Amino acid sequence: MLSISVEGLDALQTRLGAYPAALTDRLTEKARALADSLVEKVKFEKLAGEALNAGTGALSASIAAEISSDSENISAAVGSYGDVKYAAIQEYGGRTGAHEILPDKAQALAFLAGGAMHFARRVEHPGSVIPERSYLRSSLEEMAPDIESALSATAGEVWENA
């Protein structure tokens, strides 16, 4: 009869048993850090003149990361959260319909046209074609190789330290 004895089997089983939870924890931390870096890239590069110039700062202020995780999945989303109506059309481009512009805080609109100041109670805007000015997708595309390598390295680090 053949008999085999394996030393350290209990230690190996303990190490393997702890690996999934440790990996989930570290990958969640890394995903949060990477998402925060992506938010910074969008706000301080893309929305600071690289893709769009800041106007009011509302679009930049709306950019945030959301991280969620459970025992099987880790998800990181970076986007415009809030009521910034022009966020999507700037990212993807598009066409606005004809619409009427009315004054909000005064009795008339004031604007420069042809070098002269004009006043009007209302203006009929013919609509616009807005070109794509990707600030989210282009940032992710630029950071994708770094994100992939950071997540892969994290898995290896967790295994080495488990």
Which terms would index this structure?
single chain; 162 residues; alpha+beta; 2 domains; two-stranded antiparallel sheet; 4 helices; 22% strand; rod-shaped
Question: What's the structural blueprint in terms of helices and strands?
Answer:
Layout: H1 9-44, H2 58-62, E1 63-69, E2 74-80, H3 87-92, E3 94-96, E4 99-101, E5 109-113, E6 116-120, E7 123-125, E8 128-130, H4 137-161
Antiparallel strand pairs: 1-2, 3-8, 4-7, 5-6
Helix pairs in contact: 1-4
User: End-to-end distance, in Å?
Assistant: 36 Å
The rounded Rg comes to 26 Å
**Domain module count:** 2
| Biggest sheet: strand arrangement | 1-2
Structural class: alpha+beta
Helix count, DSSP H or I runs of 4 or more residues: 4
For the biggest sheet, the summary is: 2 strands, antiparallel
Number of strands: 8
**Order of secondary-structure elements:** HHEEHEEEEEEH
Mean pLDDT: 91
Residues in helix, % = 40-55%
Shape: rod-shaped
Taking pLDDT < 50 over at least 5 consecutive residues as the criterion, the unreliable ranges are none
What fraction of residues sit in β-strands? 15-25%
Write a structural description.
Strand 5 (109-113) and strand 6 form a beta hairpin. Helix 1 (9-44) runs antiparallel to helix 4. The protein is built from four helices and eight strands. 44% of the residues lie in helices and 22% in strands. The protein has two domains: 14-93 and 131-161, no CATH class; 96-128, no CATH class. The protein is an alpha+beta fold.
